[in-house]
Design a protein that fits this description.
Layout lengths: L2 H18 L4 E3 L2 E3 L6 E5 L6 E6 L3 H20 L2 H17 L1 H12 L3 H21 L8 E3 L3 E9 L3 E4 L5 H15 L3 E4 L6 H12 L7 E3 L4 H10 L5 E5 L2 H10 L6 E5 L5 E4 L5 H13 L11 E5 H17 L18 H17 L2 E4 L16 E6 L4 H4 L6 E7 L2 H9 L6 E5 L3 H10 L4 E4 L18 E2 L4 H8 E9 L11
Parallel strand pairs: 7-8, 7-10, 8-9, 10-11, 12-13, 12-17, 13-16, 15-16, 17-18
Antiparallel strand pairs: 1-2, 3-4, 5-6, 6-20, 11-19, 14-15
The structure holds nicotinamide-adenine-dinucleotide.
The site of nicotinamide-adenine-dinucleotide has 33 residues, from helix 8 and helix 9.
């Protein structure tokens, strides 16, 4: 039996429960499907077949989940950090126990190749372990001394929070947002993306198995405009962490205004990778290919704009052309697959629309540009490389969110910086050069939340993760996550030596 066949057999087993009964919500420690609930069909991008029915969450469902999170908050907040640490490590153990199932279900639901999803399950557990270890110190603050007073600060969890996640790497991103919220003592209501609800339900089951108290973790399925909106408007919810599109961030900011919610947004990007003539050619080539064609190009930090210096342009583009042609497109459960099907037909069509836009704007489609119809009814696309583009074209300005790279030539460092910054986004950037002085200049000049120099997207959990401009507000990672999920309280203690101002004596 091939590895693909063996994975398909496992998928059949793991997906059976979702196909046999409607996927509902997880509220106050129970899996619930409200009587008479409206549902929608969740399909797999591999061939558009059904993975089962999912409930369309209503405002009433969201209200119940928010009330559960509110009721559970005080006890969870008051649990010692050490006990929370133990529970969250236990949670991570349970993720590891189900890592294969998570990876396979996720691949079938969102189309991401199994080679990457295996890692995503492991990274999800690592997210929980990292923040579990930090739970006992989350409340720590500063001591600030004055002559006659000492101030000290402490952090307290902000309250129940709403976590709204997208479909591109749903499992990993959910754990990345939820682990620090729980470690800091917040309770959560999670609204996963409607296109990929399955791994969120596995997480909810794990929450129950791991023994999280009822109401600490709640999951409501459904659409953004209804369930997501109700969550962002609910008065019990004190903060909303969104990973999604820039336009969604604007909606949520408006929706949360009346209840003055704290917001954390991780949004879209059009990230440049700048390759200079003096770059390590082979490594830069590997990184350029990896950072747009891995994860189906459905990755917020993908480097979707290649800025290539004129001295090496022809040689680099020729090598790139060969590599893009070689990419193995196929079923996401085939371990040899490098690019899988795009998440949904609607998204597939959006990505396909850029093939015509590129032509109209005068770019060259050097590789790809079409559907892989030989692979059946799934959302399979030829990995695509546009060349002879300029930074004003729509393919250089808009987030395509697929395995599609736009290459643009530049001459000077100043020109590269100008083009890199000439975008509404500012999530990440990548620079390849052997000139150390240049790396220092670019680190200062590039308008981006994150910059990788001579590297692809290396991950470090304590480092701040997030964007500037239209790419987001706020940072995740390490203590930055706690700053979002917690309030800082200042306590000022007099030493007993000062005089209080006297009135009316
Ligand atoms: P999306 O914005 O369409 O949806 C994200 C989530 O928001 C979903 O759960 C959706 O139901 C919900 N939502 C939509 N409208 C809402 C509303 N009015 N109120 C409340 N919730 C609402 O995003 P997507 O298409 O699922 O994901 C792709 C996007 O996510 C891309 O733009 C990508 O760049 C971005 N992303 C960013 C990062 C980052 O770290 N910056 C990471 C991953 C993905």
């Amino acid at each position: 039996m091939s590895e693909l066949d063996s994975n398909l057999a496992k998928a059949g087993k793991y997906l059976q429960a979702f196909q046999e009964k409607t996927t509902g919500h997880f509220i106050n420690g129970e899996l619930v499907t409200p009587a008479g609930a409206e549902t929608y069909t969740n399909t797999t991008p591999t061939d558009q077949s059904s993975l089962g029915e999912v409930v369309k969450g209503t405002e009433t469902d969201v209200n119940r989940a928010c009330e559960a999170a509110e009721s559970a908050f005080a006890d969870w907040r008051d649990m010692s950090g050490t006990d929370r640490k133990k529970l969250l490590h236990h949670f991570a153990d349970k993720i590891v126990d189900r890592a294969e199932e998570i990876a396979i279900v996720e691949s079938m639901d969102c189309g991401q190749p199994i080679r990457f999803m295996k890692q995503a399950a492991v990274r999800g557990a690592a997210n929980f372990r990292y923040f579990a270890d930090k739970a006992p110190e989350a409340q720590n603050g500063l001591a600030l001394h004055q002559d006659e007073h000492t101030n000290y600060t402490m952090r307290t969890p902000i309250g129940p929070v709403g976590i709204i996640t997208p479909w591109n790497t749903p499992f990993m991103l959910s754990t990345w947002k939820i682990a620090p919220a729980l470690a800091s003592g917040c309770t959560i209501v999670h609204k996963p993306a409607e296109l990929t609800p399955l791994s969120a339900m596995l997480l909810a089951e794990i929450a129950s198995d791991a023994g999280l108290p009822d109401g600490v973790w709640n999951t409501v399925n459904g659409f953004g405009e209804v369930a997501g909106k109700a969550l962002t408007e609910h008065p019990a919810i004190k903060a909303v962490a969104l990973v999604g599109e820039t336009a969604t961030g604007s909606h949520i900011m408006r929706q949360g205004a009346d209840t003055l919610k704290r917001m954390h947004f991780e949004l879209g990007g059009k990230n440049p990778v700048i390759v200079f003539d003096d770059a390590d050619f082979d490594k830069a080539l590997d990184a350029v290919v990896f950072m747009i064609y891995s994860l189906n190009g459905q990755r917020c930090t993908s480097s979707s704009r290649l800025l290539i210096q004129s001295g090496i342009k022809d040689k680099f583009i020729a090598a790139l052309e060969q590599r893009v042609k070689n990419l193995r497109v196929g079923h996401p459960l085939d371990p040899s697959t490098e690019v899988g099907p795009l998440v949904h037909t609607g998204h597939f069509e959006k990505v396909m629309s850029y093939m015509d836009i590129a032509k109209q704007d005068g770019a060259t489609t050097l590789v790809g540009g079409d559907r892989r119809s030989d692979l059946g009814a799934g959302n399979y696309l030829q990995p695509t490389l546009f060349t002879e583009a300029n930074n004003q074209m729509r393919i250089a300005r808009e987030e395509i969110f697929g395995p599609v790279l736009t290459a643009i030539e530049f001459d000077t460092e100043a020109e590269a910086v100008q083009m890199a910054n000439d975008t509404e986004y500012g999530l990440s950037a990548y620079v390849w050069t052997e000139n150390s002085g240049r790396t220092m200049r670019l680190a200062r000049e590039l308008e981006t939340g994150m910059l990788w120099i001579n590297s692809e997207n290396n991950r470090n959990l304590p480092s701040p993760f997030g964007g500037i401009k239209m790419s987001g507000i706020g940072r995740d990672g390490g203590d930055y996550s706690f700053d979002f999920y917690m309030e800082t309280k200042n306590v000022c203690v007099a030493h007993g030596t000062h005089n209080v101002p006297v009135l009316g004596r």
